[in-house]
Amino acid sequence: MPKFRTVDVARRAGYSVQQIRNLERAGVLPPATRTATGFRVYTEVQLQSALAYRELAVAVGPVEAKRIVRSVHTCPAAATVALLDAAHARLHTERAELALAKDAAAVISAEQIEDVRASDWMSVAELAAALGVRTSTLRHWDTEELVIPDRKAPTRERRYSPSQVRDARIVHQLRKAGYRIAPLRAVMAQLRRPAGSGDIGVALAVRDETLTGRSRALVDATAALAGLLPPSGVSPRATAPQPENRSRR
Fold first, then answer.
1. CA within 20 to 30 Å of 184's CA: 33, 38, 191, 219, which one?
2. Is 101 in the same domain as 76?
3. Closest CA relative to residue 205, chosen from 183, 182, 181, 221
């Protein structure tokens, strides 16, 4: 079986030497064996674990990535497969919500707003009920400059015009599709400019590209994990290499 130094695994995985040590300490990599002088000696198991973690971190984030790779070394294979199934399911849900957001944004952005009457305006309670959100959510969107209503004198009560209601519907769809506040603020600022509705399509296309990258990373991670999964009924604890010396090198 090939033997690797810490620096070899670090280079192959695209991490620093310290990051590899940290991953071992976190249980993402099984403990390395040690030479008589205390230097770490890694095998293909640690290398594939590092590569799997790298791709999983892109796909599901570092916290969940550590959980999944650790499970390979400490749990039955079925437990790891279940975690991967859940990760695929979450990405599928995000993609389905993104598709809905694309359809909704296309329809909402194309709506013609004209012949506005006083009765067309909505209060914060009315709009919250129409969207199925809390009134505090709309107030938060106002604070974050996502949807900025007018204020009715002298009480300063929020009142939403038809164009602001349209903005709220777009924000609602994009938040459901996974957009964070900061990117949304930039999108909505562009959308409020003349002829700015095309920017919503660009933002959704970027989100689509990001999701595709995460999905590909999850596929690559699954391939790297496949060779690490123990046979059914075999505990991974029995096969994990044990350290010979715990001195740090």
1. 219
2. no
3. 183
Q: Could you tell me if 171 and 106 lie in one domain?
A: yes
What is the domain count for the chain? Answer: 2
Give yes or no for a cis peptide into 154 (omega within 30° of 0): yes
pLDDT in the model for residue 123 = 92
**Residue 57 has what pLDDT?**
96
The Cβ-side half-sphere exposure at 165, using a 13 Å CA radius, reads: 20
Does 248 fall in a domain? no
Alpha-carbon span 22 to 161, nearest angstrom: 54
Residue 108: which domain range?
93-210
Residues 6+ apart with CB under 8 A from 46: 4, 9, 24, 29, 30, 32
Q: Is the pLDDT of residue 244 over 50?
A: no
**Is 243 contained in some domain?**
no
**HSE value, Cβ hemisphere, 13 Å, CA-based, for 49:** 28
**CA 136 vs CA 6, 44, 117, 139, 188: distances in Å:** 51, 52, 26, 5, 19
Q: What is the pLDDT of residues 125-163, one digit of tens each?
A: 999 999 999 999 999 999 999 999 998 878 888 999 888
DSSP per-residue letters across 22-49 = HHHHTTSSPPPEE-TT--EEB-HHHHHH
